[in-house]
Amino acid sequence: MAWVLLLGAALLEAVWATALGRSDGFTRPWPTVLGVAAAVASFVLLTIAMRDLPVGTAYAVWVGLGAVGVVLVGITAGESASPLRLACLVLIVLGVVGLKLT
What is the model's pTM? Predict the structure, then answer.
């Protein structure tokens, strides 16, 4: 169950990072509200997951998958999807899988 909560926290990390990036320095209310709410929910899920997972593992997975999510959102918005960039994202995901397996 801790891993499911951690995956939810990582998904919400991608949401809050993307929303706050679009809040234009907290001047746009809806992205700001979404970003802050998603951040709080993400931190809560991360904290609950860390009851059963090592802090280092939980944090690495949270940041890694959150970063992959933000990059994928950026790619859908027109950022570069070069083969090298995609390969680096795959390496992050492989690192997360490795942490899960060990």
Answer: 0.89
